[in-house]
Amino acid sequence: QKEVEQDPGPLSVPEGAIVSLNCTYSNSAFQYFMWYRQYSRKGPELLMYTYSSGNKEDGRFTAQVDKSSKYISLFIRDSQPSDSATYLCAMHGSSNTGKLIFGQGTTLQVKP
Amino acid sequence: DTAVSQTPKYLVTQMGNDKSIKCEQNLGHDTMYWYKQDSKKFLKIMFSYNNKELIINETVPNRFSPKSPDKAHLNLHINSLELGDSAVYFCASSTASGGETQYFGPGTRLLVL
Questions:
Q1: Distances (CA, A) of A40 to A85, B68, B107
Q2: Ranges A46-55, A81-90, B29-38: which has the least confidence
Q3: Regarding predicted confidence, which is higher, A22 or B71?
Q4: How many Å apart are CA A53 and CA B113, to the nearest integer?
Q5: What is the mean pLDDT of chain B?
Q6: Best B41, B48, B50, B58 residue to mutate vs chain A (most A CBs within 10 Å)
Q7: Which residues of chain B lie closer than 8 angstroms to A43, CB-CB?
Q8: Strand segments (E) across chain A
Q9: % of chain A beyond a pLDDT of 70
Q10: Over 90: is that where the pLDDT of A92 sits?
Q11: Given CB atoms, is A91 within the 8 Å cutoff of chain B?
Q12: Which of B41, B45, B55 sits opposite A104 (nearest CB)?
């Protein structure tokens, strides 16, 4: 069993839909949670970063962390065709080595 | 202006060959990383250097050898290439205390025939 599980999709939604992307994890030591976005044939780029439990909002994006359930989510409101990409969750524990454990990534397509 | 750059972008080679991938960052970061992304887009860390010192060395075959001549550069040399080495290799960098915010390069697509 992988430390971080993420449904690879693909997920296809119409423009304007609310998108929910999720990851589950098994290591209770994880405290830092990130969402990276990766466009086709590009490197991942950091989208959202959350420490410990709670919500964080940035424009159309909301990241949620539920440590009790070992479950994190990324919500995209009013999705746009430009949101079409692969979304990778990532996390690590308290050690500051930068060793991120990534989920497999969910491929999202937003259709106009 | 590219923050993290990698060369080459594409690499096609025969089994058994030795090849190198170069990475440079102009962000002034102290920490650099190598990741491997397989065909299912699973991204896994291989190595990490902090100020030229190796700090992460995952279970990677010893055919893979990273080298950091200075903190702005991290190269990856691969000996005796195998079919299973075909993947996209990403270099990334971050500040020493900001491992959550990693800046990735564009990737090097390696195909071993």
A1: 7, 29, 11
A2: A46-55
A3: A22
A4: 46
A5: 92
A6: B41
A7: 4, 90, 92, 104-107
A8: 4-5, 11-14, 19-25, 32-38, 45-51, 54-58, 61-66, 71-76, 85-92, 101-102, 106-111
A9: 96
A10: no
A11: no
A12: B41
How many residues would you count in chain A?
112
Range B1-29 burial, b when 16+ CB lie within 10 A, else e: eeebebeeeebebeeeeebebbbbbeeeb
Q: Average per-residue pLDDT in chain A? A: 92
CA dist A58 → A46, A55, A64, B73 (Å): 12, 10, 12, 33
Is the CA virtual torsion B45, B49, B55, B58 positive or negative? Answer: positive
> A95 pLDDT band (50/70/90 cuts)?
low
B92 with A43: Cβ contact below 8 A: yes
Token pair, residue B41, equals 């887009």
Query: Which two three-digit tokens encode residue A74?
Result: 């990324």
Q: What is the pLDDT of residue B98?
A: 66
Q: Check whether A32 has a pLDDT greater than 80.
A: yes
Q: Which residues in chain A have their CB less than 8 angstroms from residue B57's CB?
A: none
The confidence score (pLDDT) of residue B86 equals 97
Q: At B52, phi and psi to the nearest 5?
A: 75, 5
pLDDT at B57: 85
Check if the beta carbon of residue A92 is closer than 8 Å to that of residue A98.
Answer: yes
Other CB atoms within 10 A of residue B101 CB? 15
Nearest-neighbour CA in chain B from A17: distance (Å): 25
Alpha-carbon gap, residue B63 to A91, rounded angstroms = 28
